[in-house]
Amino acid sequence: MSHVLRRGPVLGCALLLAPLALTTGCAADGHPLSAKPYDAARQISVAGLDGGRKVDPNKPLEITAKGDDGRITDVTATDAAGRHIRGELSGDGRRWRSTSPLAAGAHYTVRVSTEDEDGAPGRRVIGFDTAPADKLLRVSFGPDSGTYGVGQPVTAELSHPVRDRQARAVVERALKVDSRPRVTGSWHWVNDKTLHYRPRDYWPAHATIDVRSALEGIKVENDLYGGPAKPVVLRTGDRVEAITDASAHRMTVKRNGEVINTIPVTTGKPGFATRNGVKTILAKESFVRMRGTSIGIAPGSSESYDLPVHWATRVTWSGEYVHAAPWSVGSQGSANVSHGCTGMSTSNARWFFDTVRVGDIVTVVNSAGETMTPFDNGFGDWNVPWEKWREGSALTTEGVREGGGPADAARLRPAL
Questions:
Q1: Is 388 helix (H, G, I), strand (E, B) or coil?
Q2: Which fold has domain 135-236?
Q3: Which residues are catalytic?
Q4: Is 49 exposed, middle or buried (0-12, 13-18, 19+ CB in 10 A)?
């Protein structure tokens, strides 16, 4: 960002005393600023550009006017990515100093404008490189590029923890999410190393979402600078939603608002009630071996089980699925007899498996279970009201709310 000291030109012409002698010491049209700029290389000096060494990005850029016969009028400093350095020009035009950090490992072009004691314009263009950073903050976006359901959040995993609020703001400003059509959305800090991004409402059907980082080379805090990040491009398919009414023992599946199927189901029985709330499909597994021991059921107890399960659509890392349950067909549509999963006939489970994709929405209502947690057991992001979600951004005035990370230890705990 350039700073211009605006001051009337110092005319070398006796404009008031000798109006007929306007060409003396002036350009042909009577205005010194219309002259071709002279080379101001001898008129200015730049701190740190000696010996051909790369510039320390932790030090401010300082440009000084030498001697008493001129001043600096404007400075523009831009890196190869088009990012500008903010700066301040002293009131007398003798010194310009950067007020925003330089990027590490970047090439800069600095354009300095001057004028001499007669008001004639000068110009100097300087190029230099900054030293690379020793410590880089790398960003990994998720999921991988591909097509997903309209409930799929965007994730960003950082290689180093970022706790300071101002440093978080630097990171968040540099993480870009652009969708077509455009929607209102926000990042939310799940913990010191994880961010999630979601719109106010679900993504539109058949949207394109470009995710990228502009953090490379940018100073985050202390000696930590942004590193490279691989961008991802996500697309959404139809808006597919499954609403399971646990008390009515029925799942209603909609595509773009239209009901396409109603399926009798069974959900969690007392003591194993299915979680309420919005869940996002995490994976589709055509075969899963489900054991009661994985959710804390002792072998040999009356609740123990060890069964092959087909057409399993995962909605939590702790093992909640929508799956085929041929052993409970007699209860489907009339009673809840499972250990937390949503069970249905084999043909209905195969239809559901083939109809949905990762990122589609599964909502459970009227269950005796607790509400799906936002971040520690899958993508329960949509259970956070929008205003609360915004409070998790470092760019709001409400502060950052801390949360827990993914429960890696619970990833392989199927519940039947």
A1: helix
A2: Immunoglobulin-like (2.60.40)
A3: 323, 341
A4: middle
CA 311 from chain center: how many Å?
33
Q: Do 135-236 and 3-129 fall under one CATH topology? A: yes
- 354-399 pLDDT, tens digit per residue, is 999 999 999 999 999 999 999 999 999 999 999 999 999 999 854 4
pLDDT tens, residue by residue, 247-276? 999 999 999 999 999 999 999 999 999 999
Task: Please tell me the distance from the alpha carbon of residue 159 to that of residue 214, in angstroms, as a whole number.
Answer: 16
How far is the first Cα of the chain from the last one, in angstroms, to the nearest whole number? Answer: 60
What Cα–Cα distance (Å) separates residue 46 from each residue in 50, 64, 199?
9, 6, 46
Angstrom distance (rounded) from CA 174 to CA 122: 36
Burial (CB count <10 Å: 0-12, 13-18, 19+), residue 19: exposed
Model confidence at 1: pLDDT above 50: no
Q: Please tell me what DSSP assigns to residue 55.
A: B
Fill in the DSSP letter of residue 353. Answer: H
- Chain segment 292-319, per-residue pLDDT in tens: 666 777 776 767 676 889 999 999 999 9
Report CA-CA distances (Å) from 331 to 109, 129, 264, 267. Answer: 73, 71, 9, 10
What is the rounded distance in angstroms from the CA atom of residue 51 to the CA atom of residue 54? 9
Supply 9's token pair.
């030109």
Domain 240-410 fold is: L,D-transpeptidase catalytic domain-like (2.40.440)
